[in-house]
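Methods — Computational structure assignment.
A single polypeptide chain was analysed. Its primary sequence is given first, followed by the predicted tertiary structure written as structure tokens.
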Amino acid sequence: MLEYLSLEQLDELQKREAEIKEREIALAAKKAAMLQKQENLSELQAIASDVSKPLAQRVAAKIKICDMN
């Protein structure tokens, strides 16, 4: 059976749809921000590993020098 909505019901339905769309947009923005943070974190980790390799080599070299003395 076909059911008709009153103007009030239709208005309420449209308001709910608008609220849902706003929430979806906010969620998408939040996800995008999280992905960007993760991407930045990955870049920082890559930089840190590049920096820490030479540092680790220098520390190892100093340890070898100390062991020789």
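Note: The first helix runs from residue 7 to 68.
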